[in-house]
Amino acid sequence: MNTVGLIAFALVGATKAIREEFDMFGVTVVGLATAFAGGMTRDLLVNRIPLALMAPIEISLGLLGVGLAIGISIALESADDHPLTQISDAIGLAAFTTTGAIVATQAGIPAFGVVAIATINAVGGGAVADILLDRSPFILLDDFYASCTVLGGSTYWVVVTTGGSNGTAAAICAVMVVGTRTAALIYGWSLPTAQVLGTTRE
Amino acid sequence: MNTVGLIAFALVGATKAIREEFDMFGVTVVGLATAFAGGMTRDLLVNRIPLALMAPIEISLGLLGVGLAIGISIALESADDHPLTQISDAIGLAAFTTTGAIVATQAGIPAFGVVAIATINAVGGGAVADILLDRSPFILLDDFYASCTVLGGSTYWVVVTTGGSNGTAAAICAVMVVGTRTAALIYGWSLPTAQVLGTTRE
Amino acid sequence: MNTVGLIAFALVGATKAIREEFDMFGVTVVGLATAFAGGMTRDLLVNRIPLALMAPIEISLGLLGVGLAIGISIALESADDHPLTQISDAIGLAAFTTTGAIVATQAGIPAFGVVAIATINAVGGGAVADILLDRSPFILLDDFYASCTVLGGSTYWVVVTTGGSNGTAAAICAVMVVGTRTAALIYGWSLPTAQVLGTTRE
């Protein structure tokens, strides 16, 4: 699952950079940032040297995603809106949320921190990529994307706290993320803005 | 004081995100980032796990600020320009500057580092929030805001170096920040740009 | 070399901020960020307290660069496009790449990590400065700039791996960066975008 996630995230990030006409170095950096910036931030927060810098295999998977993006972009418009990419992305989101929750729990961080680190691990890369592309991170604006990781991270914490094993918690967390994200894609879920909340109260 | 600061900073950040029509997740993230990103950066720089992730009470205060912002935004225009918000913000600025200076001093960091970490602790959150909102950090552009924290941090270091206790230094630092910030608000202080400097020399 | 780099980087960053009419605090922050953000990120990644916060001499050099930028901007247009600035910048790029590679190697980080940290050390400051100026980092968009550091970092790693001493590796790495960067400036090298790659294949 983590493998699928790394490739999918790098592909999505690189495709966005290609659309903005970044050069090859820029496309590679944005692709790798999307795949690794969340995990590197997680490792910084729990005070260890980022795994991504120590594991050549992970980087190769990221580069594969970037290569795929370049290859596909020549053959195909909008590779990042393709259903296959979106499903891979949902699987990646689930894998990254789960990994984040596990690392945070092992570092002895309490409830809110676990959810925060799971979320940063899963969506931090995409947010960094958007900042590099000079936009507001899309996760803050609309769509029901980061909310899936918040739900997943909370579920993980609830299961572990109520006596479930790490394995059970991880499985339920992953199902929760893939499930809510798929539902959000199919039914077009989104969170309201304060403006909408204000209007409905009038 | 720190309590007032966390609530005020989260309120100011969330209000800016509401104005940009971010969704509820985005408003929460920008509010929490304004309240906590400075302190988290400080903790990363002195190499420890961010306190914010370990302390549920602090997060609750941040969420209270976000909730206030959402509630107030429905009742009121421009909650972040309200005098009460500006005074709370000045108190928060003082509290965060002082905390930053204390943490840096305890970590054995010399003069410039103390001022730098005090400043990052106090204004880093607002800078991150502005980057998430896709603007240049307002602290770099005009106003006499970050300058108050530089003055406060320098004062702290001078007092400690000349033999004052940490408590004395903290008190003088806090008074310095609140004082200069209030004066800046009342008299409309701002720093010159290089263009202005160039013109006045001609 | 590191001295030249710190002054040149601070000068280039501060000049960009002056052109955007940032106030004196903003100009100073952007200048210092250009000079130090790469090295601070490097230190965070290898899990130590940033050297810049511990070394007053380095900061003084950064402030000297900022002061030069302010002085020159009043006398001269486009200080950052001046040949002398560009040569200083190339020397700085080489110094920072080499320092990054040495620190990463000492921290026991493998091949890709060494190149990544050398690159972040050399171009991270400029990227942070561009984000503060609300643009996409210029290194991602065009020019043959970050590529020089990737080549330099890779060279360093190859020399060390094939049995060369750290000193030899550092010297060859520095020559490689200055050489490729100078050639890129003279001959106007740049990397292709995916669009260009797509076109040439048709």
UniProtKB/TrEMBL annotation, chains A, B, C:
Report the locations given in the UniProt record: Cell membrane
What GO cellular-component annotations does this UniProt entry give? plasma membrane
Please identify the protein, giving its name as recorded: Trimeric intracellular cation channel family protein
The record lists the membrane-crossing segments as 27-45, 57-76
Q: Which InterPro entries does this entry report, sorted A to Z?
A: Gly_transporter
Q: Tell me if Nucleotide-binding is a UniProt keyword of this record.
A: no
Q: Does the keyword Amino-acid biosynthesis apply?
A: no
The annotated topology with respect to the bilayer is:
Multi-pass membrane protein
Which keywords does this Swiss-Prot/TrEMBL entry list?
A: Cell membrane, Membrane, Transmembrane, Transmembrane helix
Q: Name one Pfam family in it.
A: Gly_transporter
Limits of the Glycine transporter domain? 2-70, 87-159
